[in-house]
Amino acid sequence: MASQGSLLERLFHISERGSSVRTEVIAGLTTFMTMAYILFVNPAILGDAGVPRDGVVAATALSAAIATLMMGLYANAPYALAPGMGLNGYFAYTVVPFTAAVLAAKGVSGVEAWQVALAAVFVEGIIFIILSLTKVRESVANSIPPTLKYSIAAGIGLFLTLIGFADAGIIQPSPFAIAFNIKAFVQPGPLLAILFTLIAGALMALRVPGALLISILTAMIVGWALNISPPPSGVVSWPHFSAAMKFSLGHLLDLGIAAATAIVFTFFMVDFFDTLGTVTGLSAMAGLMRKDGKIPGIGRMLLTDAVGTTVGAMLGTSTVTTYIESAAGVEEGGRTGLTAVVVGLLFLLGLVFTPVFTATPAYATAPALIIVGLLMAQAINRIELKDPTEALPAFLTIAGIPFTFSIADGMGLGFISYVFLKAVTGKWKDLNPILVIVALIFLAYFISLPSIHASVTGGG
């Protein structure tokens, strides 16, 4: 047992980061429980685009397992990866229909639209790998000032809370906004989510270890017992890799240079800065960020994300990215790659035990997202709010991430405003060339959004 502990210590430096094997395992279980929904949500979304659903289940579980294990063993970071929400919707409901229309108009046969869309994801992943190996992504990450990094963390916290509220059924879409669900306190799912949010908060106040995991498991069991949500329909479901290696690079250019470039560029922009923002925010929360704002080992984290995207496209799923739900495990004390290894192994189990894992109802994981949102929002305390050149970009970032429902868009508002305010007030020492370039890239991206949308959708 001692030798096992010694091996884990050598691999992950657990005691050096102030953690323990028990804490890391609990953190891994907690992170997995908050993101296990992807095992059934991703197949449902990509299935709408024509991708074989059984193939997507296998691709989701295996790509998440491979990327997360790499994050743990190679980058020694407590973060998990899986096919990204939002990007899978863009893949299924924008790229695939447009691709199908173009292929039909050109009379191209012998290929499905989703196979061409997977080729765009594969190309994006290769670009990411090249940028990561040339240290471009790491240089960009280290160029972000602490104010923006902390505001990104706080913005992601609000984003998590918004997702938690929506998962719980506490809020719902309305014609012009997101509205409070007035029936939340009489409907069993939302009521359980509210109740277990309070219970989880009480357990944390009492310093009960594994408070978030306890709340998730208990809410899940209560929901099954009261028939609020269905229990698992079975135990074992063998994997089918029917979507693996089906991407079609040869037909990507059949879409035309402009449209193909627009699709790859949009995947690239969103994934690049979503990942950068997520890793930055999580590292700030985990205490893995140095005082100068740099994150040790971020190059390995970003390369892991890039490899995950490429492997995911090969297996048959949309862009794989680092998950903000990893914050739940960080809150439970996860500080090393052992947390990620636990998550990765659980995703491997997901290959055969999918019916059990996917029976976790959203109202059971929502409390963890809401509470973690609160904890991440505490990064606001580290922002210099008395200096308008620091406070306004921070505020735009914090508000922009949840209000636009996009980490990348919120970051863009923060970058552009930070560079502008520092420049016009003569505070050039607070800027660096990479920061200015990234702000200009975001500005060009925002300006080009109408034309990108038109080229991808065929509309104006």
Quick gist of this model?
67% of the residues lie in helices and 3% in strands.
Word description of this protein:
The chain contains 19 helices and 4 strands. The protein has a two-stranded antiparallel ribbon. A hairpin with a 4-residue loop joins strand 2 and strand 3. The protein has 460 residues and is mainly α. The mean pLDDT is 88. It is globular, with a radius of gyration of 22 Å. It has one domain.
Q: What descriptors fit this protein?
A:
mainly alpha; two-stranded antiparallel ribbon; 67% helix; globular
Calculate the mean pLDDT score and round it.
Answer: 88
**Biggest pleated-sheet summary:** 2 strands, antiparallel
Percentage of residues in helical conformation: 55-70%
How are helices and strands ordered from N to C?
HHHHEHHHHEEHHHHEHHHHHHH
Low-confidence stretches: none
Helical element count? 19
- Extended strand count: 4
Shape: globular
State the end-to-end CA separation: 65 Å
Q: For the CA atoms, what is the radius of gyration?
A: 22 Å
Strand arrangement in the largest pleated sheet: 1-4
The helix-and-strand class reads mainly alpha
Number of domains: 1
Q: What is the beta-strand fraction? A: under 5%
Chart the SSEs and their pairings.
Layout: H1 2-12, H2 21-35, H3 38-48, H4 53-73, E1 81-83, H5 87-105, H6 113-133, H7 136-143, H8 146-168, E2 171-173, E3 178-180, H9 188-205, H10 211-225, H11 257-286, H12 298-315, E4 320-322, H13 326-331, H14 337-350, H15 354-357, H16 362-377, H17 388-404, H18 407-424, H19 433-457
Antiparallel strand pairs: 1-4, 2-3
Helix pairs in contact: 2-10, 2-14, 3-4, 3-5, 4-12, 4-14, 5-6, 6-11, 6-12, 8-11, 8-16, 8-17, 8-18, 9-10, 9-16, 10-16, 11-18, 11-19, 17-18, 18-19
